[in-house]
Every structure is written in structure tokens, then in C-alpha cells.
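To: structure subgroup
Subject: Chain for Friday's discussion

All,

I'm putting the inputs and outputs inline so they're searchable in the archive.
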Amino acid sequence: MSRLRVLLVDDEPLALRRLSTLFEDIDDTEIVGTAATGREAEAQIGKLRPDLVMLDISMPQKSGLRVASDLPEAERPEIVFVTAFEQYAPDAFEVEAADYLLKPVRFDRLRQAVGRARRRRLLRDAEDRLAALPQTDVPRGADAIWVQVADGQVRLPVDQIEWIEAAKDYVLMHTATRSYIHRISMTALEDYLDPGALMRVHRSTFIRPALVAGVQRLGRGLIALKMRDGAVVQVGPSYVKAVLARLGLAREAE
């Protein structure tokens, strides 16, 4: 995709100005509008059809969480929540937000969040193009997967995959140099991937444990993983104990 069209939503003028300034240094993004209330945000989303909404949670008229949850799934832009309160993180990820940033927003975290939103948007946009392709079977224990590229297919060694994220019947496989879109379900992948190398940490995510650089506490017993490439990966509630144990943090999993 080309430029990422961004809507900024916050009831604090200073926060809007700060975000706008930070976005000046993020390539291939365009601020298409702003909003200061939940109702105004809904109207602007319907009118402007942004790719990404930077959405404050605590706002007049309607909270950011309500705005996001009320959007029809088929029309929902990527959402990055911005708030001063850590306790909302679990609720934010329940509406499948791309990321969750705490105020004051740091540039490095904003850039990571925008990168994640861009990848997720790319995956959505590729669905129609890949819909005509058959779902690919992967031989059990395979050391490589044939993936579609613009001019054909390439052989992707499994040991080069750093982490995987999914949307419906498609996955985005991330390597150190690029990402590959592939039509296969997470259930099929789980049957064939070596769990000793790539571990499922969410219904829509696999990670390579050796590449986890840090663990973030989100409250309510939930965690997120910071990967070596800077990506922040949400861990599903039912996976937390196993993930902490795998990372050598077994005592914290108890």
C-alpha cells in the first residue's frame, strides 16, 4: 500500500499537536483529520475512511473503546489506542487494536505501532488478491514453505521465520529482511510447525521464543512480548502461563 491515511482523536489539544508533530517524522503517513469527542470520531471515520485511527480512550460523549467496538468489523480501520491509563490495555486488545500507547507518547513506540498497523492493513488489502489461490498444505515437519510473491513463488526456510501473525485464512510471516503473505490457516500451521522453534502465543500469533527481547505487563495477568525487531506481540490469556514458563519465568507464571 502507499501512504497510510491517519485520523487523530483526542480531547486534549496539546496531545493532538504532539501526535501531529511526531507523525511529521514517520514516512509514508498523512494526517487526514482530527476529532475531539467520541461522536466526532465516529463521524470522521465514516466520512474520511482512514487507514489508521490514533484513538484516545477517555473522551467526552463516548469512550474510545466504545467507538472501536461499535465500528462494523468489515469497515474498521486499524486502531492504536493512546491513553494515560495502563488498566485499559486488556480491553483495548479485546477489540483487536493494533497497539496500545501510553502518554506521553514516545517516538520509537509510535513508529513501532504505525509499522504494525501498516502490516495488518497490508494483510487485509492482500486478501482479495490471494482469495483465488488454493490454501496451501505444508508437509508435517517441513523445513520450508513455498509462498506467493509478485512474480511466482519462493521457498521460505522455516528457520528464517521470526514471528507470524494472522487474519482469517491468511498469515503474514516475518523474517529479518521482509514479510511474506501466505494463504493458510493458523490451525493448519500449528499442525505442521515445530513447537520447539515457533510457539503459538495467541490465536492469531506464533513467535520464535529465542527472539523475545522483553516482556511487558499489561495488568489483569496479561502480558505482551517485545520482539527483537521492535514489534510488540499480545499474548492470549490462555497462553500466558506456558509462555512465561518457556521464557524461563516459571515462577511468575504461578
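Points worth raising on Friday:
The CA atoms of residues 73 and 95 lie 10 Å apart.
The mean pLDDT is 85.

D.
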